[in-house]
């Protein structure tokens, strides 16, 4: 009887708490998106190369994340680009006293078919959309064996 209760509990809990699966390459991310899967990115900024105000700087020891929806995929050669890429972005309102109060936090991921990822982060003033901070991070997709900065997940 105990075994039966455990099996029923496990089956019911797996319905409500799905398994998280790591996507380990550009092709896996693109395939999941094209199937309509809910894909999430988690970025370990400290493992990225940071360019701020045109100069390389030390990346902060911070972690951020975002859903990859909506997205667009552009094949290689479509715009003269040598590599295919997925583009996603999100803008949210945040409070940043350092920049005068509320600003829009704009984040864009460009996931390139060579497994590299370009992350753009900007703070824009609410009234004039003036750029208050502009940073670009360069990282790679973590394949669970390479200790790279950008993780992608789906829930099964």
The average pLDDT score comes to 90
Percentage of residues assigned to helices: 10-25%
Domain module count:
1
Calculate Rg over CA atoms. Answer: 19 Å
Shape summary: globular
Find the structural class using helix and strand composition: alpha+beta
Number of strands: 11
- Give the SSE string: HEHEEEEEEEEEE
Bin the strand percentage.
over 45%
Main sheet strand line-up: 4-3-10-9-8-7-6
Distance between the termini: 29 Å
Low-confidence segments, given as residue ranges, are 1-15
Number of helices: 2
Sheet having the most strands? 7 strands, antiparallel
General description of the model:
With 156 residues, the protein is an alpha+beta fold. It has helices spanning 2-16, 26-34; strands at residues 20-23, 39-44, 49-52, 55-57, 63-67, 71-74, 85-96, 101-112, 116-125, 131-140, 150-155. The chain has one domain (18-155). A hairpin with a 4-residue loop joins strand 7 (85-96) and strand 8 (101-112). The longest helix is centred in the N-terminal third of the chain and has 15 residues, at 2-16. The chain starts with a helix and ends with a strand.
């Amino acid at each position: 009887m105990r075994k039966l209760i455990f099996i029923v509990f496990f089956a019911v809990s797996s319905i409500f708490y799905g398994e998280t699966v790591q996507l380990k390459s550009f092709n896996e991310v693109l395939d999941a998106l094209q199937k309509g899967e809910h894909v999430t990115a988690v970025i370990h900024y400290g493992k990225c190369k940071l360019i701020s105000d045109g100069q390389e700087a030390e990346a902060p020891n911070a972690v951020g994340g975002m859903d990859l929806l909506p997205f667009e995929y552009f094949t290689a050669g479509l715009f003269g680009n040598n590599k295919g890429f997925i583009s996603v972005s999100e803008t949210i309102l945040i409070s940043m006293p350092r920049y005068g109060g509320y600003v829009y936090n704009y984040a864009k991921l460009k996931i390139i078919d060579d497994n590299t990822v370009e992350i753009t982060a900007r703070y824009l003033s609410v009234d004039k959309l003036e750029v208050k901070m502009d940073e670009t991070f360069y990282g790679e997709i973590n394949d669970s064996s390479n200790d790279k900065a950008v993780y992608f997940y789906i829930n099964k």
